[in-house]
Amino acid sequence: MPEATRREPSRFYRWMVLIFVSVSMGGNYYIYDSINPLERIFIEGLGFSATEFGWLNASYSVAAVLTLLIGGIIIDRIGTKKAFTLFAVLCLLGAILTAAEGRPGIMIAGRTVLGLGAESMIVAATTALAKWFRGKELSFAFGINLTIARLASVAADNSPTWAHAVFYPQGEGGPPSWRGPLLIAVGAGVLSLITALTYWVLETRAEANYQLGKRGEIDKLEFREIFRFNRSYWPLLHLLLRHFPVPNVRDRLFHQQDPGRTGRGRCLRDAASSGTREGRFLQQLTSLLCHDRHAVVWVGSG
């Protein structure tokens, strides 16, 4: 069908795309946060040192920082749907490697592979949604996307409650399992890949039948432009740098106290995650109110 005569995809089709992209990204978030309740189990059951456990997150962060720019280039080169699926594959491989063997080196390698795909996958999701939504709808779609993804983080933080039998397969008096919770994360990775492939099918079909938004020309990367950013950018960046470590510190403190075996531990965890749930829904409202602004900065509960 000639592109000039194509109609735009229906609202239902576009929101279906949003759901699949968001659920796929949620699998990514679940995998990352799946180790939060396991620190005490890793240290006491597998003999991890505190430093070795810290490297499970540090290796992810280092890999993510080093590959974000490359991830953006990959998205531009091979297209959104292929890149999004590629990054979902990396997230799944990272989850599988992390659950394969209870040794620090293997698990750190798995988290590194996860870092190679996870943050770039978020960039690909943002790029994908920009093709399907405009204006007020785009801001709201971003809010819905982040809400669904972060609810997966809430699920991971609360997994000792709803997956208690997986954490303690031999009952309250038995030793906790480290692999069972990580296999749930592998399942989240499988779901992420399936929904990413579904998005690929939806976009391929839409490209043949509908008129989609087009990206602009790719700008030349100029590192010196970093020093020409508006002055207001740097205080906002400082706020984000101060904000992002807070959830990890909070989660570690609460899960160190009790990985969900007792009521006290569950209450602490539920109190920590309740702010996350409320913050996600407030983001939807914020996205609607701020759709006509040049930039939206969410400083939420992590």
Please tell me about this protein's structure.
It is built from twelve helices and no strands. Helices cover 74% and strands 0% of the residues. The chain has a domain at 3-138 and 149-213: Growth Hormone, Chain: A (Up-down Bundle). Helix 1 runs parallel beside helix 6 and helix 3 (50-78) runs parallel beside helix 5 (104-132). The chain is an all-alpha fold and 302 residues long.
Mean pLDDT across the residues is 79
The count of strands amounts to 0
What percent of the residues sit in helical stretches (DSSP H or I)? over 70%
CATH superfamily membership of the domain at 3-138 and 149-213: MFS general substrate transporter like domains
The 3D shape can be described as globular
Tally of individual helices = 12
Query: What structural category arises from helix and sheet content?
Result: mainly alpha
Q: What is the level-2 CATH architecture name of the domain at 3-138 and 149-213?
A: Up-down Bundle
Can you write the helix and strand succession as a string?
A: HHHHHHHHHHHH
Task: Assign the CATH topology of the domain at 3-138 and 149-213.
Answer: Growth Hormone, Chain: A
Major β-sheet, in short?
none
Share of residues in strands: under 5%
Query: Gyration radius, to the nearest Å?
Result: 20 Å
> Which spans have pLDDT < 50 for at least 5 consecutive residues?
253-257, 262-302
- CATH classification, class level of the domain at 3-138 and 149-213: Mainly Alpha
Through-space gap between termini: 45 Å
Question: What's this model, at a glance?
Answer:
This protein has 302 residues and is mainly α.
